Amino acid sequence: MADQKEQRVCVKFCFLLGKTAAETVGMLRQAFNDDALGKSQVYEWFSRFKSGNMSTEDMPRPGRPSTGRNDENIAKIKRAIDEDRRKTIDQLSEETNISWSTVQRILTEGLHMRRVSAKFVPRLLGDDQRENRVNVCRDLKSEVQNDPEFLKRIVTGDESWCYGYDPESKQSSSQWNFTTTEESASSAIQCENNVDLYFFIVNGIVHKEFVPPRQTVYQHFYLDVLRRLRESVRRKRSEMWRNGNWLLHHDNAPAHTALTVRQFLTSNNMVIVPHPPYSPDLAPSDFFLFPRMKRSLKGKRFRDVDEVKENTLKALNSIQPQEFQHCFEQWQKRWDKCINAHGQYFEGD
């Protein structure tokens, strides 16, 4: 493990260079990986340096943290982890008064745990649902084999919340799990600001719109969206419109499968690309567009809905055509992964 005194000197060096505490945390993690000082420790040293105390020696204090990896300390850490597995080593060390390095060794060697990132799993799939996922993927693979232009004719889309503040990241949403258990944990963000709708093809966005505040995306509203989508295809993708062979892909949300919507699709000769229920891992909007678009928005606070819209559009416009092409390539690979997993949810790209 890296010498903490050495790292404290590095923190002081960054402070003198005018780096921020956040920048210093990132640099330490890049240099020392898992052995890097925790965020709270770095901020504490920055606070000390700002006060004029430039010493990198530990300040003497009563009740020095315990450094023993004994049964009592292991029990303390286990109780604290059982209360909340998303606690960091810094938090556990402060709560139990056990040194940082000892907490780390207790977690990894004593309790045989490791930090894993949160992943949202929609639901436990039944046998019929898994079989349906496999059958849909096989059907789509057959379509591609029979028609090499199949993917180029698809317009896929969905709606998503965009947040005024989305604090979650892979690091901050991870938690401690035993190494012998499932390596993911459920996590959710409950924050609502604005709903957006996007439809895209293999080389870029075809149609986008912001849902008015307090407007629910129900069947009649979605019908209007589809009318506007058709107009966008007519104006922006005239060749697809003239050929009349473009396909629509969306998930099985109630608004998408309502009788009035299905009647509209039939009357306008709009063919639907099949999508198995409860399968965001097979929906390009869910595994590519929304995560890619929101990546630059995470951790930022926006004053109002207009600012959310402005920054969302900037993020959307930054996506290059080749990224959309790669998305459709990954979509095909995900069909294979689903088939190989016998319809179970699978790890991403």
Automatic annotation (TrEMBL):
Which Pfam families did the record assign? HTH_48 (PF17906)
Q: Which superkingdom?
A: Eukaryota
Alphabetically, the GO molecular function entries are:
nucleic acid binding
Residues forming coiled coils: none
Q: Which residues form the Mos1 transposase HTH domain?
A: 8-53
Q: State the name under which the record lists this protein.
A: Mariner Mos1 transposase
Q: What is the lineage of its organism?
A: Eukaryota, Metazoa, Ecdysozoa, Arthropoda, Hexapoda
